[in-house]
């Protein structure tokens, strides 16, 4: 397989295709700075993109890895999940060799962003494909003259063969906010997280790696900088109500998101915050 980085058209959206000689590949949309696909060498697709996602360059894309900034979910006055996932990102750097491909995308404040959120910033998103690993690093810089607060997430939609047969390990004993119970705080008592109905949880202060097991394959997930992990699946009724997801789409996905959602990050003027999510196909 040819290694490198190509500028492509993805169903009408400007995008980048990253590939390695071993056969790893990822597709990144400049609309939203959003990873839409990741296939490790010799393996199947690991990122879920809804087959009915709207790809018009204006509507948030259902699936992939949306970048939530400067607001997670509806936890503030901004549009849900902020404005970064609806913005056009700029390519800042491209580097590749036979064994890796790395792109850096950038997003800066402009007239439209300041009308919603009156702060100066520069967000840098690094996406690395290497062997069986996908690494996404987000760097948020306060380029203004006063501190600001934000919440953020890498809203990762993982592709699974059957969500009811999937097992998420590594969250035993962690406290979580159950968003299906008005944010009630609970403790995870199970050795694994099973999806047997709608799940919408924010796990707090997660420092150890997670492992998603399904049938004959697994996925290791590690985060740095992000204190929280969001686990989400809309299940049958809510999936059917989403116009950009098939009725049975919930069976093929599980969101395991790196997040700073419970406590907003305060970023002083001139300072930088860094978060990373790494996934390794096993």
UniProtKB/TrEMBL annotation:
<dbReference type="InterPro" id="IPR011013">
    <property type="entry name" value="Gal_mutarotase_sf_dom"/>
</dbReference>
<keyword id="KW-0413">Isomerase</keyword>
<dbReference type="InterPro" id="IPR014718">
    <property type="entry name" value="GH-type_carb-bd"/>
</dbReference>
<dbReference type="InterPro" id="IPR025532">
    <property type="entry name" value="G6P_1-epimerase"/>
</dbReference>
<comment type="similarity">
    <text>Belongs to the glucose-6-phosphate 1-epimerase family.</text>
</comment>
<dbReference type="Pfam" id="PF01263">
    <property type="entry name" value="Aldose_epim"/>
</dbReference>
<dbReference type="GO" id="GO:0016853">
    <property type="term" value="F:isomerase activity"/>
</dbReference>
<protein>
    <recommendedName>
        <fullName>Putative glucose-6-phosphate 1-epimerase</fullName>
        <ecNumber>5.1.3.15</ecNumber>
    </recommendedName>
</protein>
<dbReference type="InterPro" id="IPR008183">
    <property type="entry name" value="Aldose_1/G6P_1-epimerase"/>
</dbReference>
């Amino acid at each position: 397989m040819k290694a490198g980085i190509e500028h492509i058209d993805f169903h009408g959206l400007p995008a980048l295709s990253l590939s390695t000689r071993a056969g790893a590949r990822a597709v990144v949309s400049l609309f939203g700075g959003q990873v839409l696909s990741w296939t490790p060498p010799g393996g199947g697709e690991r990122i879920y993109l809804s087959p009915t996602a709207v790809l018009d360059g204006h509507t948030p894309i259902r699936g992939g890895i949306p970048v939530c900034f400067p607001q997670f979910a509806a936890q503030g006055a901004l549009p849900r999940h902020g404005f970064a996932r609806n913005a056009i990102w700029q390519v800042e750097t491209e580097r590749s060799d036979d064994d890796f491909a790395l792109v850096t995308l950038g997003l800066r404040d402009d007239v439209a962003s300041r009308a919603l959120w009156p702060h100066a910033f520069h967000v840098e998103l690094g996406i690395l494909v290497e062997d069986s690993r996908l690494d996404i690093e987000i760097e948020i810089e306060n380029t203004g003259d006063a501190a600001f607060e934000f919440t953020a997430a890498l809203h990762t939609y993982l592709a699974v063969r059957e969500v009811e047969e999937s097992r998420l390990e590594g969250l035993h004993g962690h406290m979580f906010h159950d968003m299906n119970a008005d944010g009630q705080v609970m403790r995870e008592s199970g050795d694994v997280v099973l999806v047997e109905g709608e799940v919408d949880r924010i796990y707090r202060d997660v420092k150890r790696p997670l492992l998603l097991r399904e049938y004959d394959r697994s996925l290791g997930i590690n985060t740095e900088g992000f204190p929280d992990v969001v686990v989400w699946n809309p299940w049958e009724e809510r999936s059917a109500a989403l116009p950009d997801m098939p009725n049975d789409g919930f069976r093929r996905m599980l969101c395991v998101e790196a997040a700073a959602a419970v406590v907003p990050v305060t970023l002083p003027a001139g300072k930088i915050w860094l978060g990373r999510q790494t996934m390794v196909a096993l």
